[in-house]
Specification:
Keywords: Membrane, Transmembrane, Transmembrane helix. This protein is mostly helical. Helix content is about 60%, strand content about 0%. The chain has two helices and no strands. α1 packs antiparallel against α2. It is elongated and about 60 Å long.
């Protein structure tokens, strides 16, 4: 019995030729897009929470800048992906 013939009883999916290959592999772009969306949502929620608490203007601006930069990066990546 070779290593390739061995079936792992704890594996949920079918074994692939190499890790990270195949149609179900997650790319770096997918991970980055997910992280950028998380930053957009978290910074927008933080900005809203800062608005309700009456925090300093510098904190509003910082969270707003983070939101705009992350959203802008998502837009640029989306437009470049259409080419």
């Amino acid at each position: 019995m070779t290593h390739q013939d061995h079936r792992d009883p704890y594996r949920l999916g079918t074994p692939r030729a190499a890790p990270g290959d195949g149609p179900d592999a997650v790319s770096r772009g997918d991970v980055l897009r997910t992280l950028l969306w998380a930053v957009v949502v978290l910074s927008a929620v933080a900005n809203m929470a800062l608005s309700f608490t009456g925090a300093a203007t510098a904190l509003h601006l910082a969270s707003g800048v983070v939101t705009v930069l992350a959203a802008g990066t998502l837009v640029v990546r989306g437009l470049r992906g259409r080419r």
